Amino acid sequence: MLDKLKLLAKDTAIYGSSTILARGLNYVLVPLYANLLNTFDNGVHALIYANIALANVLFAYGMETSYLKVASDDARSGGDSARCFSTAVISLLLTSTAFTACILFFAPGIAELIGLSANQKEFIRYAAIILWFDAMLVIPFADLRLKRKAVQFAIARVFGVVAVVITAFVLIVHFNAGLKGAFIANIVGSSISLLIVLPVFRQFRRFFSSNTLREMLRIGLPYVPTGIAGLLVHLIDRNVLIRMRLEDIERIYGSGYAQSDIVGIYGRVAAFGILLQLFIQVFRFAWQPFFLQHAEDPEAKKLFRYVLSISTVFAMVIALAGTFYVPDLIRYQYFDRLYILPPAYWIGLSILPWIFFSYIFDMISTNLTAGILITGSTRYLPVVTFAGAGVTTVVCLWLVPLMGMEGAAVAILAGTVVMSICMGYFSLKVYPNRYEWRKLLLLFVIGVVCTRLPVIAGTQDIWFETVLTICYFGVILVVFRNEVNYVLKLLGSKVKSKANNE
């Protein structure tokens, strides 16, 4: 089992390296925008990008997944995959161009629809161009994955992000382009990525098959509502915060703040959830092929039980450390003049524990998908996703007027908790397993208590937080002592056998 766990860790590192690098580079933009743009402009940026993520699902309409399926079937049957590629590209080219044209034309109305003013239509039009480029990259990226051209895939992604960072820095710092520079930088980055994957288009033919498209739509379209609902769990908050009443904002935060200021502060602080988001995303890349490969193993359920416990405990530790140390890193003044986030954003730091702990339940849900996919019971996935989105939306609408940003963060935690409960119910229904729920719940409760102790004690010194973190590690070793002993025995036997062989 140790070899299999090591294999999962290795796959996680391989599949996620480009993602970590790309997202890490992209994260450089957070302090850049926070320090060089005001909170209002950051709010506009955060709101539009939240809606870009939602619109991306509509622009792609499941074509990535359907192309992988149909093209791989064609390749196995000896068919011409170039015809499948051409059909998919033509379809996305036509639809994305039409969608983009509509957004360009109706930009003032769309700006007002999402909570901005008609005068900010320029940024909506920039978003439309970004969406067009993203749609044009869907099939080339899918093709690179299908043909296992990981290096080219990684280069296109990473170089695109590098171009965004460099362009944003030049336009905002040296040309004072402001918020416009942030959107132009993204367009430049997407253009660079598209240029890098141009060789993929060599297989393009003047061919279009309505039957192939029909098959792709049959596979891909059901992913659209589920994809939107899944994104709403983590993005509906911005769209609710932008609609806060000014009276509520003044009551909670004092005078001088507009809705866009609140969205900007919230968006930049919530971005620090990347610590756990990256860990889960990288884990997800490796987890699906791993559990499908080992589904028939005699010890599969025990293996999956250990993976869930280990990965969830890791998520809890990162959440605790993030809650303790990220605010200190944000408040620290670097080179006696620079903050990661300026003091204007510090009123939003109270959302961090809620954001970090929500990702723990995302990790649990990710693990529990194994039972659903192994048994082919994917009909339950939309139910799980819509339940989470529904709860997040309702709680957000309820708590944001009362608690502001913290209410939005609580709503995200509520949505992820409901998703993990629903996922657990359906997964265990079709694929029973005896997970260590009591131990994990105990660790979660202790972790929450640890995050509150500095507040109760009236001190947030790093030494006190470090002592609590060390104590938490000790509790983990005690609670999961059987699992720790098992892994240590495996390691000991492996080292002994290696020494004997030498």
Short description:
This protein is mostly helical. It has 21 helices and no strands. It has helices spanning about 1-25, 30-35, 40-60, 65-75, 80-105, 105-115, 120-145, 150-175, 180-195, 210-220, 225-240, 245-255, 260-270, 275-295, 300-330, 350-375, 380-405, 405-430, 435-455, 460-480, 480-500.
Helix and strand run = HHHHHHHHHHHHHHHHHHHHH
Could you estimate the helical fraction of the residues in percent? over 70%
Compute the number of structural domains.
Answer: 2
Low-confidence segments, ≥5 residues, pLDDT <50?
none
Class of secondary structure makeup: mainly alpha
Mean pLDDT, rounded to whole units? 89
Task: Using the alpha-carbon principal axes, give the shape.
Answer: globular
Largest sheet: none
Q: What is the C-alpha radius of gyration, as a whole number of Å?
A: 24 Å
Number of helices: 21
Report the strand count. Answer: 0
Oligomer: single chain
- Determine the strand fraction and express it as a percent band: under 5%
Terminal CA distance reads 23 Å
Please explain how this structure is put together.
The chain contains 21 helices and no strands. It has about 500 residues and is mainly alpha-helical. The chain folds into two domains: about 290 residues, no CATH class; about 160 residues, no CATH class. Helix 5 runs antiparallel to helix 7, helix 7 runs parallel beside helix 9 and helix 15 packs parallel to helix 19. The radius of gyration is 24 Å and the shape is globular. The two termini are about 25 Å apart. The model has no long low-confidence stretch (mean pLDDT about 90).
